Amino acid sequence: MSTDFPRIAVVGFAHSANVPQTHGTTNGVEMLIPCFKKLYDDLNISRTDIGFWCSGSSDYLAGRAFSFISAIDAIGAVPPINESHVEMDAAWALYEAWVKIATGEVDLALAYGFGKSSAGDMDMTLTLQTDPYTVAPLWPGASSLAGLQARAGIDAGTWTEAEMAAVAARTNSADADELLTAPYVRDPLRAHDIAPYADAGAAVILASEERARELVDNPAWVTGWDHRIDTPNFGARDLTRSPSTKLAADTAFGDRSRDVDVAEIHAPYTHQELIVRRELGIGENTRINPSGGAMGGNALFSAGLQRIGYAAHAILTDEARTAVAHATSGPLLQQNMVLTLEGEN
User: Fold this and answer.
1) Which residue of 109, 177, 183, 275 lies most exposed, with the fewest beta carbons within 10 A?
2) Binning pLDDT at 50, 70 and 90, where does residue 63 land?
3) pTM value?
4) What are the DSSP calls for 27-79, one per residue?
């Protein structure tokens, strides 16, 4: 990131519980209102202090067109707001919010994401993200595609089932050897290799340097940010690698050391964490997903934003001085975002 850009920081993060099912509507209002209230209370601000709002969600997931319009009920219609939306994980909505502040248009912006995975068959819904001519007509489930990716890595010797189990064991505080005795559900994936879908919403507030110093004692300063995309054609890329993650990481980190304190990685499958960790090039001393990561609940369209929120939270609470957050969108790590953060304390 160019040093010519103004300093911008994450100053607030809130999310609803990542649960298998909620009784709320698919527009996310019931999830989001408590998140917004917590941020207002934590920062001692009101909704009118927010200069720009941006959301991330999916009409396919919500089962209605322009579903994000209904979600605005969580904000309130009067007075009018400056608002935008992305049809993908809300980590990309946060990037749009960052641009708004970087251009000097606003000094405080809020990005939020939501999804009610329990509303349908998510494995089939996510198939709609694949190539509409060669892949989608076959209706492969998302976990079946991930199984093909995991098998490619095992056969190539890039990772082992034991390494995959170690990721799950760290997340679930389980015994890795015992996990390896579980039956396959999508060979070579076992149940613990697949993040359970969750209903959840999340919100993150960004602030300009002046506002950040007013609102919190130790802002989580954005020191690098980039997002890249790989081809959607599965046969045209090595599924055991993620070039877009590496390129985004090289750009976001710049010349700085990658031995950061905390890394929050958005990986819905254990083998995908292994891919991303390799491409990020982070050091052995880095704590990986202390929040539990997406394996604790794959909250579609807010899981990536949560990774950024948790990475920033570690700095805001003085649990870390440096952090990196990763978010992904699309099938099999197709699109990837890398964000680096640093505190002053």
Assistant:
1) 183
2) confident
3) 0.95
4) T-HHHHHHHHHHHHHHHT--GGG--EEEEE--HHHHTSTTHHHHHGGGT-SSS
